[in-house]
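User: I'm putting together a small comparison set for a docking exercise, and I want a reference complex before I start. The sequence is below, and the ligand is thymidine-5'-diphosphate. Could you produce the 3D structure with the ligand included, as structure tokens?
Assistant: Of course. I'll restate your input first, then give the structure tokens for the complex.
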Amino acid sequence: MAGLFITLEGGDGSGKSTQSALLAEWLVGEGRTVVHSREPGGTELGVELREIILHRRGYITPRAEALLYAADRAQNIATRVRPAIDRGEIVIQDRYLDSSVAYQGAGRVLGGAEVRELSLWATDGLLPDLTVLLDLDVASGRARLDADDKVFDRLEAEKVDFHSRVRDAYLELAASEPSRFLVIDGALPVGEIARAIMERVARLL
Ligand code: TYD
């Protein structure tokens, strides 16, 4: 059986982890071996890099940040993802290069095309067989993450602006590679989203 590489993308709070768990459960029921992965932090080195990227105090330049995500990705793809695909397994991964293009590109310092090139260099050109984009407007995503967010200050406004650029970037990516992407309205009921993903994956099996 041929291996598959499926990635889930979307803003924070869009429901990626719920959907990857449901997809994995279904595929295991179909008799497939599933490897679950995520970026950043899918490997031992990645856990250390994740800590640096997400929690280290102090300024990290946009280029350094892009390289840290790329280093995490290089290690994850070479040591976990490619070997699993070669064994004929199905890798379901939360976030991949489209996250870098959307988030690092949205910082306005780096261009999406160069961020994508960096990721492709890091992974020796691996693209997913399918990328599921859970599209959700920024307000709903935030509401899910933080049910009682009251104060709307300048920083919050910047965040909203940043996240709407991330969303737009994702939608542009999906439009430019329609055969790789499945775009689903993240506001739909969980079961309905899961069914749409299963239908699409079934065609790839
Ligand atoms: P994570 O805790 O994995 O959250 P989520 O549930 O939203 O996936 O957060 C990872 C954060 O890192 C998320 O805000 C997006 C960001 N990110 C990038 O900016 N670039 C990347 O290449 C990746 C993989 C993640």
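The helical segments are 16-29, 44-55, 62-86, 97-106, 112-122, 138-145, 154-176, 190-202. The radius of gyration is 17 Å.
User: Thanks, that's exactly what I needed.
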